[in-house]
TrEMBL record, chain A:
Lineage summary: Bacteria, Pseudomonadati, Pseudomonadota, Alphaproteobacteria, Hyphomicrobiales
Any one Gene Ontology cellular component term annotated for this protein: ATP-binding cassette (ABC) transporter complex
Hydrolase listed as a keyword: no
Protein location: Cell inner membrane; Membrane
Entry's transmembrane regions: 21-44, 56-78, 108-130, 136-158, 165-185, 222-245
Domain ABC transmembrane type-2 residues, every copy: 23-248
Major location category of this protein: membrane
A GO MF label: ABC-type transporter activity
Pfam family, one: ABC2_membrane
Keyword presence, Transmembrane helix: yes
Key words, A-Z: Cell membrane, Membrane, Transmembrane, Transmembrane helix, Transport
Protein name, per record: Transport permease protein
Species: Devosia geojensis
Membrane topology: Multi-pass membrane protein
Family: Belongs to the ABC-2 integral membrane protein family.
TrEMBL record, chain B:
The name this protein goes by in its record: ABC transporter
ATP-binding is among the record's keywords: yes
PANTHER family, alphabetized: ABC TRANSPORTER ATP-BINDING PROTEIN (PTHR42711), ABC TRANSPORTER ATP-BINDING PROTEIN NATA (PTHR42711:SF5)
InterPro entries in alphabetical order: AAA+_ATPase, ABC_transporter-like_ATP-bd, ABC_transporter-like_CS, ABC_transporter_ATP-binding, DrrA1/2-like_C, P-loop_NTPase
Length: 250, 319
């Protein structure tokens, strides 16, 4: 019970400044909006099937937003790690994994908020709604984000005061994952080797699951595989994060 | 209240292992106010971090508030307040929120935490700042908030790691006023580290001097100064011959240590200079030597450090 209370304590603390962070959240939407306006129209010409290219593009985009948004959250922890805030909590009886999990859970909110705004904005452009499937898609997305966030926090704690190390590692992991995940263009168009490489990328399965869900296909192998990948990322993220913070001596 | 035996901490670095703390043993009784004094890199913070369970010792043992830090770190954390070197309050969080969060982290119930936060806001002059966020506070305000955070759960033992570093003299004095007042009210055991000589000298009842990972002295500031440095009596006479004669007599004064002649002046180090100086002048007068000026210089803890290590703490602190 104390563990749950500790998760809540950490979560509640992180939620407070989020209100002032809305500006940044909104700013984070500028880039995807530019994609919708300036890039999506191109997709019609290259044979993306489905009722609208948006049905294909929006799920990829929100997965990308989630990945980049959460891969970098360790940055905020680095700040608190350098200033002494994390140390203050480590010197209390709070459960250390709870400290990290509470923080990671908070990431659900900005990313689900961004995804919902993206969907709403895309409706007038012709996005067709499949409420239940899309809702499940958002749940998957949230859990995926929590897993990635936990990994990002673990990286921040492991890199300690070396902020450039955190930046290099997180960027050099996130960008190839994004490119290989077929977020912008269908991987079916890729040369053989690139396609093969993309099959080894967990993000590919998340993107495919979201795309299936965004055209209302729930009982499909794509949705199942994506779910399995998300659960795996979540478990690995929380396990690695808990282990790293338990051993942390800053 | 705090006991350590042979604490050792070795860090692995690229240049090979570094022994930050090499066999620290100490005992602090309930209600004591102890300062760890030493230059940067002496191992003060590493020692405090081991005592506060933030860092596992490489070897040795420690017991804080009756609990072994290695066996049950969580129980130790409930007993102690820890104010680290850095700033404990978040940049984007409101003062009162941080205090309440700290209360929750220390497993206090909501009503008690609210009452306690109110008390501390009052006590540490944080009134009117409750709704301000961390990044808008001044250095002194931030530090007072850090102390308040450490005190939320009314700990029996308070650890302060370099509490006043980076503060202007006024804020330092103000912070100390609060710490001493708190101590008077609660009888809390306080263990702090500092590299400010005057701070250790005037605030602490007991000073432990640390250098190079080892404890090299441990006593009240007065005794440290009397035993390890001593008062310096300087007497200026009217001729070199008189000075030579006076130096001979100075060496025979009770407790006289080093004697030095320079021109017309004689300097001698003794235990209690103020008591000895009149006697010295009387003896000089008896042999007909003319005393032009006389003074006693009380030693500082820096003289103690200098006597122990051959280095000045001031130089080391700057370097």
């Amino acid at each position: 019970m104390t563990f749950v209370a500790d998760v809540w304590t950490s979560f509640a603390r992180e939620m407070k400044p989020l209100v002032s962070g809305w500006v940044w959240l909104a700013f984070g939407l500028v880039q995807p909006l530019l994609y919708i306006g300036l890039f999506v129209p191109l997709l019609g010409g290259i044979g993306i099937d489905g009722p609208s290219p948006l049905q294909w593009f929006i799920p990829g985009m929100i997965v990308m937003l989630t990945l980049f948004g959460t891969a970098m959250v360790g940055w905020s922890l680095t700040e608190e790690l350098l200033s002494g805030v994390l140390e203050r909590f480590l010197a209390t009886p709070m459960s250390r994994p709870a400290l990290l999990i509470g923080r990671a859970l908070k990431e659900l909110f900005p990313l689900v908020f961004q995804a919902v705004v993206m969907i709403i904005i895309a409706i007038p452009f012709g996005l067709q709604l499949f409420p239940l499937e899309m809702l499940y898609g958002l749940v998957l997305l949230g859990l995926f984000g929590v897993g990635v966030a936990a990994l990002s926090y673990a990286l921040a704690v492991a890199a300690k005061d070396d902020t450039s190390m955190f930046y290099m590692v997180s960027q050099s992991v996130a960008l190839p994952l994004m490119l290989l995940g077929g977020v912008l263009l269908p991987m079916e168009m890729a040369p053989g080797w690139l396609y093969t490489a993309s099959r080894f990328n967990p993000l590919t399965y998340v993107v495919e699951a979201e795309r299936a869900l965004f055209v209302g296909e729930f009982f499909t192998p794509a949705a199942l595989n994506g779910t399995l990948v998300v659960v795996a990322v979540l478990i690995v993220g929380l396990a690695v994060g808990s282990r790293v913070i338990k051993r942390a001596s800053l | 209240m705090i006991h350590a035996r042979d604490l050792v901490r070795t860090f692995k670095t690229k240049a090979g292992p570094v022994e930050a703390v090499r066999g620290l043993s100490l005992d602090v009784a309930e209600g004591e106010l102890v300062a760890f004094l030493g230059p940067n890199g002496a191992g003060k913070s590493t020692s405090v971090r081991m005592l506060t369970t933030l860092l596992p010792p490489t070897s040795g043992s420690a017991n804080v508030g009756g609990i072994d830090v290695i066996v049950d770190p969580a129980a130790v954390r409930r007993q102690i307040g820890y104010v680290g070197q850095g700033s404990g309050a978040g940049q984007y969080y409101k003062v009162r929120d941080e205090l309440l969060t700290q209360g929750r982290a220390q497993r206090m119930d909501a009503a008690t935490a609210r009452r306690r936060a109110g008390e501390l806001i009052e006590m540490l002059e944080l009134k009117g700042l409750e709704e301000r966020i961390g990044s808008t506070l001044s250095g002194g305000q931030k530090r007072r908030l850090d102390v308040a955070l450490g005190l939320m759960h009314e700990p029996r033992i308070l650890f302060l790691d370099e509490p006043s570093t980076g503060l202007d003299p006024h804020s330092r004095a103000n912070l100390w006023e609060h710490i001493l007042k708190l101590r008077k009210q609660t009888g809390m055991t306080i263990f702090l580290t500092t590299h400010y000589l005057d701070e250790a000298d005037t605030m602490a009842e007991r000073v432990m001097i640390m250098d190079n990972g080892r404890l090299i002295a441990d006593d009240t500031p007065e005794r440290l100064k009397a035993d390890l440095a001593g008062d310096r009596i300087m007497v200026r006479l009217t001729s070199t011959a008189e000075a030579q004669q006076a130096a001979g007599m100075a060496a025979n004064l009770p407790g006289a240590r080093e004697t030095e002649v320079s021109g017309h002046a004689v300097t001698v180090t003794v235990g209690e200079g103020e008591a000895i100086l009149p006697e010295f002048i009387r003896r000089l007068h008896e042999v007909g030597a003319q005393v032009a000026t006389a003074s006693v210089k009380r030693p500082t803890l820096d003289d103690v450090f200098l006597g122990l290590t051959g280095r000045s703490l001031r130089e080391t602190a700057v370097a």
